[in-house]
Amino acid sequence: MPYNPALDGVRALSILAVVLFHCNLPGMKGGFVGLDVFLVLSGYLITSLLAAQQRQGGIEVARFYARRALRLYPTLLLVVAAYLVLAPWLWPRDERWLSAGLAAFYLYDYGLAAFRDLSYTIGHTWSLGVEEKFYLLWPLVLPLLLRTRRPVAWLVAGFVVATAWRYRVAFTDEWPQAYFRFDTRLSGILLGAVAALSRWTPSRPVLAIACIALAVDASLPSLPFADQVAAVTLRITLADLCAFVLVSYAATHAGSAFLAARPMAYIGRLSYGIYLWHFPFALLVRDSQPLWITVSATLLFSGAMAALCLHGIDLPIRRWRERAWSSGHGAVAR
Q1: How far apart are CA 328 and CA 321, in angstroms?
Q2: Residue 142 near residue 59, CB atoms below 8 Å
Q3: For the residues of 297-314, what is the DSSP string, one character each?
Q4: Count of Cβ atoms closer than 10 Å to residue 281 Cβ
């Protein structure tokens, strides 16, 4: 797949919303919806990549798994190792080995849903657990779906069922069960897959409405303090639909003046590292420092660490992989 800088611009908007939410910035109390945008984007990118491989002769499942591991694991393991070293001094009450194991094996999504007293210092890796389970299953499921007569219709039906399932869990259990688990967060990923296979292009008025709605969704107070049921039902559904519009637009407007601008695209390339590094740092400073220090220091620290990981780890591994496997550049999900 050719590189699309506008999709990295979507990543940039998403990660900035999440970071500002975790810094407790007023006006971004619902910034957790940035994660919903990430999930829709991941569904789009991975489905597009795998569908292209399927058309070209079939999905190489083992190679896909290896590419995902080489892309995601090195930085994650570095963050986990740093946490294990620093936790005895910075977070002495954490069960650090349990937290490290859950993060390293992509199980924090179900850990946070099942255990109320589980430490949250690196609990933000729950979203990686959701995506990793999708990466494991989708190369096996998508070829079967593409053999059906109406794969987009099946995906839309899957989105409806996944949304209904999250609503049921939200009304029968507590909000963590509906918010964190892989089985309750499938709706956005499936909607991203719809975007990949339908190739729908929204009009500018539809895009404007979606962007305004997403901005309002991100600004309203929400988890974990208020509107918990609404947050994991209507608010996530609204974010899914708005993200679907935004991703569909970016997919067909690679030269978008705003989304594809170099600063936006570069922040998007850093988004995975920023996501991993920002949250433990924000936890350390947000309750003891003024807001402007919390926001600026968190952005500076996580951005610098993400840049080091991108240029010192990710890109060298990618170059080695391309030489070793003689494969071209492909789209890479977060």
Answers
A1: 10
A2: yes
A3: HHHHHHHHHHHHHIIIII
A4: 20
- Which stretches of the chain are assigned E, i.e. beta strand? none
224 CB-contact burial (10 Å; exposed 0-12 / middle 13-18 / buried 19+): exposed
How does DSSP classify residue 231?
I
**Whether 31 contacts 17, CB under 8 Å:** yes
Question: ∠ at Cα 233 (229, 238), nearest 5°?
Answer: 130
Is 291 in a helix, a strand, or coil? helix
Q: What is the pLDDT along the chain (334 residues), one digit of tens a residue?
A: 789 999 999 999 999 999 999 999 998 988 999 999 999 999 999 999 999 999 998 999 999 999 999 999 999 999 999 999 999 999 999 999 999 999 999 999 999 999 888 999 999 999 999 999 999 999 999 999 999 999 999 999 999 999 999 999 999 998 999 999 999 999 999 999 999 999 999 999 999 999 999 999 999 877 665 677 888 999 999 999 999 999 999 999 999 999 999 999 999 999 999 999 999 999 999 999 999 999 999 999 999 999 999 999 999 998 888 888 764 444 444 4
Helix axes 126-146, 151-172, angle to 10 degrees: 150
Q: Say which residue the tokens 């910075």 belong to.
A: 90
Q: Is the pTM of this model over 0.85?
A: yes
Take residue 33 and report the two structure tokens written for it: 């919806």
Nearest to 40 by CA among 155, 189, 218: 189
